[in-house]
Amino acid sequence: MALKKKPVTGMRDILPAEMQVREYVMNQIRDTYQGFGFTQIETPCVEHIENLTSKQGGDNEKLIFKILKRGEKLDLKAAQNEGDLVDGGLRYDLTLPLARYFSNNGAQLPMPFKALQMGSVWRADHPQKGRFRQFTQCDIDILGDETSMAEIELILATTAALGKICPENGFTVRVNDREILKGMAVYCGFEEGLLDQVFIILDKMDKIGIEGVKAELLEAGHARESVEKYVALLAGTGHDAAGVRKLGEVLESAMPKEVAGNLAYIMETVADVAETEFSLYFDPTLVRGMSYYTGTIFEVSMEGFGGSVAGGGRYDKMIGKFTGKDTPACGFSIGFERIITILMDQGGCAIGDKVKKAYLIEKGMDSVRFGEIMKQAMEERRNGVQVLVSHMNKNKKFQKGQLEKEGYTEFVNFYRESLK
Amino acid sequence: MALKKKPVTGMRDILPAEMQVREYVMNQIRDTYQGFGFTQIETPCVEHIENLTSKQGGDNEKLIFKILKRGEKLDLKAAQNEGDLVDGGLRYDLTLPLARYFSNNGAQLPMPFKALQMGSVWRADHPQKGRFRQFTQCDIDILGDETSMAEIELILATTAALGKICPENGFTVRVNDREILKGMAVYCGFEEGLLDQVFIILDKMDKIGIEGVKAELLEAGHARESVEKYVALLAGTGHDAAGVRKLGEVLESAMPKEVAGNLAYIMETVADVAETEFSLYFDPTLVRGMSYYTGTIFEVSMEGFGGSVAGGGRYDKMIGKFTGKDTPACGFSIGFERIITILMDQGGCAIGDKVKKAYLIEKGMDSVRFGEIMKQAMEERRNGVQVLVSHMNKNKKFQKGQLEKEGYTEFVNFYRESLK
């Protein structure tokens, strides 16, 4: 039987041209984050199925690639359901494995711990343009810092990285806090038990607009008074740090006192310190899907491209699920594939200035001469030139065209000396 | 229920100190191989189960992590055996996926194609010291070159990379050819149908010695005359290029004429051109396990460490299994985990000369002063210094110790001004 040539559904082969862009972006992100003192770590791609299905991952838990038990542990006859057949799964994000990692290795790590992770994650989503079942995430997290220094550093580092990768694309950082989200809804009189429903509708703002949100909230049966108060509050709130502080005063009765001041302080400090240019504003409609967030949340969008290119927030309760002891945690994840799509659409990016030279050798070259050519290649390589040694094809023009696509700009032909 | 803190059986969390060494080695390998014109590519970690179980992978096929079908495709009640439950698996090497990649994307690639792959592979092996169920491989392959230029480039590139990573460790490259292996056995009168058995015993040479091999061959029932002729031939063969040519003359009746000349030429050219120091010799007892090899095979060992650190060979028949048309192929794989183990045992390696500085800030710092400190950090980062900003712990000595383990050498303390 012939073997299958295509990759498995929803996953893909990465061709050389894209791979160069990916490597370049990876290095820019790594360098920037390391400059901020983030330390690279790695966890296995396979996680315990118990951890992956522990309700930390929201909807992603429905999308797990599960791994069959092996050997005697697999009892097909006795198996009643899927759970009896599997003992592991491919990680669907890098946050849950980080929480496990920290709980396993915390004693050997500095505290607070600033982690950098770059790795593949898998989700068995419906395949669609630009969305794949295996994709790369680049996360930074600060574990063990309950102060706003964590948020400030995360936003500074991520915007510095994005500024380096896409210097031509303007971008925007929107921030909010889960406590403010909750405070606003409580203040407007929504029932505490129905808040998640309110936020799911609010989260559609960028698709259906404020009128759409209003209509859906009413349709869902929420009190007209609450809905109208909510819409007015959303519309009337300022988007700068002063607006956040003012909102804090309005919500005094519905929210812990320090929340608004904390967010305003983060915004002011980031604006004051950042060396990269971007706009930063408070967005009271920012929800972010993951249920594990407990405080500040942030999201980055890039001009001219829908959807977000990075996002994150504070999740102070996840590590406690492993250790029994809460540890403050805050993270920021760059949507690596999104960035790559943007750069590839723009025609790639400047990858570096190494000279790429191809030596094309006619087949049947005399062995002494061949040795000389190879030595010449080694010398050029030693001097930093990338030298491809390849046989000359019959169709030299086509061969040259293919190599030009890979960035080769200089070609040296070596022919047999026909008179020998 | 508390979540599981340990990684899944046989896989591991990589701590910061090792991660630094891994990244450093990865970069050295990538830079060297790219200098030789190898082009980085990537395939999905998940492969079709049909491809993984197509008899290309030898014993590795017994060690596949299999992935459960999803949704309607999973019919637990109707399933008769494992095969009905799974549709994919984690790749056990990078060679089979490369063959699939080339058959899928060949039209868009230069020919010959020089591929570089660095990625994780998975094998559900019995966990033991230094052997893990997820590990990294670094492979280079040349597809579409039937000449010995492929072998020469592969050996030059791999030895250059190893020389850069481990400049203090002497290493040895042993070469052989599957045709010579076969020719010697046929010449000595072993039955053609039993050659694989002969090679399995021969492969134990480094463990049981020539006397052990002799005893096992006799025990397996091979003719004493053949065994004695074989042992004498193995012992009497020279290990340099001249020895290979001479062996070619002896085996004239049992082996294609050009085989020995080809291998001798590879050895001579590599010795002539290589800029890295290593010893290179012909080893007529080198077998290498993988059944897919069709010609030259090579293996690298490092002084003072048992086992091989790299290996490879020619496999001209695998791509044809996908495309129906044979394409010559030759590859070399660096045993990345082995190299890392050696370097970690030696106490790591020189990772670079970036200054790593930690700013330790007393909690509760006045916000204006804090902004100034953050700006100072940004300026140092811009100048290439790695600056970690962290809160000061109560136990400053312990904190400093932990950070020193991560390579921080400079510490700056920022205290609140208590008189304000």
Any overview of this molecule?
Chain A is an alpha/beta fold. Helices cover 40% and strands 20% of the residues of chain A. The first copy, chain A, has 15 helices and 14 strands. Chain A has helices at residues 16-35, 49-52, 82-85, 95-105, 149-165, 178-187, 195-202, 205-219, 224-236, 241-250, 258-273, 318-323, 336-345, 367-382, 396-405; strands at 39-40, 46-48, 66-68, 86-90, 113-122, 134-143, 171-177, 279-282, 296-302, 305-314, 329-334, 356-361, 386-391, 410-414. Chain A has an eight-stranded mixed beta sheet, with helices on both faces. In chain A, helix 8 (205-219) packs antiparallel against helix 9 (224-236). The two termini of chain A are 49 Å apart. The model of chain A has no long low-confidence stretch (mean pLDDT 92). Chains A and B meet through helix 1, strand 1, strand 2, strand 3 and strand 4 of A and helix 1, strand 1, strand 2, strand 3 and strand 4 of B.
List the defining traits of the structure above.
homodimer, 420 residues, alpha/beta, eight-stranded mixed beta sheet, three-stranded antiparallel beta sheet
Number of strands of chain A: 14
Elements of chain A, N to C (H/E): HEEHEHEHEEHEHHHHHHEEEHEHEHEHE
Mean pLDDT of chain A: 92
Biggest sheet statistics of chain A = 8 strands, mixed
What oligomeric assembly is this protein in?
homodimer
Largest interface: A-B, 111 and 111 residues
> What's the N-to-C terminus distance of chain A?
49 Å
Given the C-alpha coordinates, what overall shape of chain A results? globular
**How does the helix and strand content of chain A classify structurally?**
alpha/beta
**Main β-sheet, spatial strand arrangement of chain A:** 1-5-6-11-10-9-7-8
Radius of gyration of chain A: 27 Å
Number of helices of chain A: 15
Helix content of chain A: 40-55%
Low-confidence blocks of residues of chain A: none
Kindly estimate the percentage of residues of chain A that lie in beta strands according to DSSP. 15-25%
